[in-house]
Structure formats: structure tokens, C-alpha cells
Amino acid sequence: MHSTPASHIELLRRADASPVIQVLGIVGFALLTTLGAKVRLYLWEVPITFQTLGILGAGLFLGARNGLLSQLLYLGLGLFLPVFAGSGYGPLYLLGATGGYLLAAPVAAYVVGRLSQSRRSWSGLFLALVAGGGVLFGIGVPWLHWAAGHTGWWESLDKGLLRFLPWEATKWLLLSTLYRALCAWR
Length: 186
Known about the structure:
mainly alpha; Arp2/3 complex 21 kDa subunit ARPC3; two-stranded antiparallel sheet; 2 strands; 67% helix; 2% strand
């Protein structure tokens, strides 16, 4: 017999959750990631978006496996539909400046889901989100450097990481606080 989850929100993370609940969660977070990608502010090659709320939130709310699946679905949709930031889509879009961040999305969701599985405190959840952000930037920045043709690494670090850190830290705070609040609400 499985132990009762702390809240209804944690039902989404359970491996033995109803297949319908799991599919709804996977599709729902793929759609949330799409909506987040459409809220964007271009200041340079890589836009500021709410897309990472969907990516990292998928791992946090759905767990490692279903978080990964939601982001694979998101990438799959992007092969045929304009779900990414901007209006582009298709395989060639993934070769652009944001391709590394996009391809890192399933891995980042998986990492957040895996790390947050055993770290249920607010700080543990926050650190899991930081690790997921590290995956996004760790893959995205080198890809940006290559795809954008930056001549020096400082430019890539500046445009692909440093300018985003205040925004991303705010998102990590928001997600970890929201998750803890929803888990406390029964």
C-alpha cells in the first residue's frame, strides 16, 4: 500500500497516478510551456520569457519522468507548430540561437523532478530548480555561442546567462513558493 500524498497536488508526481491524470499533466505542462514562450521580451538573441516556468514547473509538479515527457511533447509540437518564442518552428529552428535551451528543456525538467523527489523543503525545492536552471544555461550558453557566432565567451555569458539570472532567480522563488503553498493547501 502506498502512503497518502501530502496534498492533491502531489498526486501528479506519483508513478501510480491514473493514466488520465498523467496524460493531462503532460499535455497541460507542454501547453503551459507554449504559453510561457509566447510572453517574451527581446533585448538580444535570446528572449526573456515565462517558458522556463513551464519547463522547470513540469519537473517540479509532474516529477522526473512526466516532466521530461511534457517537454519532449513540447519539442515535438515545435517541429510542426509555432510553439516556441517567436513565430518560427521546425527542425531548423532548433539550430538557431535558442536551440540549446530548447533541447535542454526535457533534461532540465527531469533533473528538477528527480532532485525535488527527496527534497521537499522549500530550500530543497529551490535548489532543485536552480539545478534545472543550471542544465538550461549549461547547454544553452555554449549553443548560443556557437549559433550566434559570438567572438568571445564573455559576450555569450553576458547575453545568454548573466542578463537572465535576476529573472530566473525570481521564477525559482515563485515556483518553489507556489509548490509549497499548494502542497500545504488541502
